[in-house]
Every structure is written in structure tokens, then in C-alpha cells.
Design goal:
The protein contains four helices and seven strands; from the N terminus they run βαβββαβαβαβ. It has 136 residues and is an alpha/beta fold. The strands form two sheets. Strands 5-2-1-6-7 form a five-stranded parallel sheet, sandwiched between helices. Strands 3-4 form a two-stranded antiparallel ribbon. Helix 3 runs parallel beside helix 4.
Length: 136
């Protein structure tokens, strides 16, 4: 049913992101799907890898998830000048460029601000051709 799963990653690893990674792993094993861990960062990217500590963290997560699932897992760092302002557009564009058919992402419980400003998950639901699995 799904052949390519994208998981947006916040390397601070809030509980919802860790939970989303578990859901993505289960779906990947079930469907033998490829997983792309997407990390939007202001750090420089060279040869497809983020410089410094963030790059090492992303690669460790990638290696760990590949070992757990037996599936192909890739790290996809994406550079942004302003992650807060650009993240919604970047995630939508990256999902399209990668050709994913499922996005699994963690989100927080809604707050009063979510009625004024939508969450990243709700933006993807509205603007992506892929199915979006939102994990709390």
C-alpha cells in the first residue's frame, strides 16, 4: 500500500517525534517501504550531510531505524535560512520531490494559537498529495 514514507525529524526529539518514528517503522516493516528522515536545518549541508553534531545525530537515527526495520532508510537534511518561516513549504516540497506516498509526523496537542496559526501537520494535510499520518 505504501512504498515510501517521509518522517520530519526534530532532533530535540520531543515525545511525539519519537512516537512518529515508531509508527513509521511499523508501517515500513508492514509494507516493506523506504523511509526518508527529513531534517530542516539552518546548518550548512555538504555532500548530502549536515555539518557538525546535527549531522551525526541524524545519521545515528537513520542507522538505528534501518537496523530495527530491515528497510532502506535515508537521511535527508534540507537547508533553510529561516526554519520557522519556511518549514511548512519545505516539508510540502520535499514530500513531492521525494515522491513519498505517506508522511508520518508527530504533533502537539492543539492550543488556542492553533486556531489562528495552523500546525505543520495540518499544513501538510492540506497541501500534500501524500497521505499524512499525524501522531500525538
Amino acid at each position: 500500500m505504501f512504498s515510501h514514507i517521509m518522517v520530519p525529524i526534530d532532533l530535540r526529539m520531543p515525545p511525539s517525534v519519537a512516537k512518529a518514528m515508531k509508527v513509521a517503522a511499523e508501517q515500513a516493516k508492514l509494507h516493506r517501504a523506504k523511509i526518508s528522515l527529513v531534517h530542516v536545518t539552518m546548518e550548512q549541508i555538504k555532500e548530502g550531510k549536515t555539518d557538525g553534531k546535527a549531522g551525526a545525530q541524524l545519521q545515528d537515527l537513520t542507522d538505528k531505524l534501518a537496523a530495527e526495520t530491515g528497510c532502506e532508510v535515508e537521511a535527508v537534511p534540507v537547508h533553510s535560512v529561516d526554519t520557522v518561516a519556511e518549514i511548512n513549504g519545505i516539508l510540502s516540497q520535499t514530500a513531492a520531490e521525494l515522491g513519498v506516498d505517506l508522511v508520518v509526523m508527530g504533533t502537539h496537542m492543539p492550543s488556542i494559537l492553533d486556531y489562528v496559526f495552523s500546525s505543520h501537520a495540518s499544513h501538510l494535510v492540506l497541501h500534500s498529495d501524500a497521505s499524512v499520518f499525524v501522531v500525538r
